[in-house]
Predict the 3D structure of the following.
Amino acid sequence: MILHALPGSEPHNTMDPAEQNTAYTVLETIRDAAVRFQITSLSRQLEAARDLLQETRLIDVAILGQFKAGKTSFINSLIGSCVLPVGVIPVTTVITRNHPRPIWRT
């Protein structure tokens, strides 16, 4: 997965149809298990997750921490690739928004 930093860009849905189908399948499997085991407390959360899948926006996640605490290294580790620069001196001192796919602007 390659991420591109686009400060100030609008959020958009980046799930391709196969990823979205997989997510729906996982949600249905969880829903079926919740019904089977009579876990009614999950119904509202499952409905909210399904609604989020249908929306055309991503959820912003903020990573906060002290100076030189390893925030960028943590993000690179989550992504599984060195996408953001890491160094001995601060190299990511501004707010950065990353997207899993490039956004083409016209």
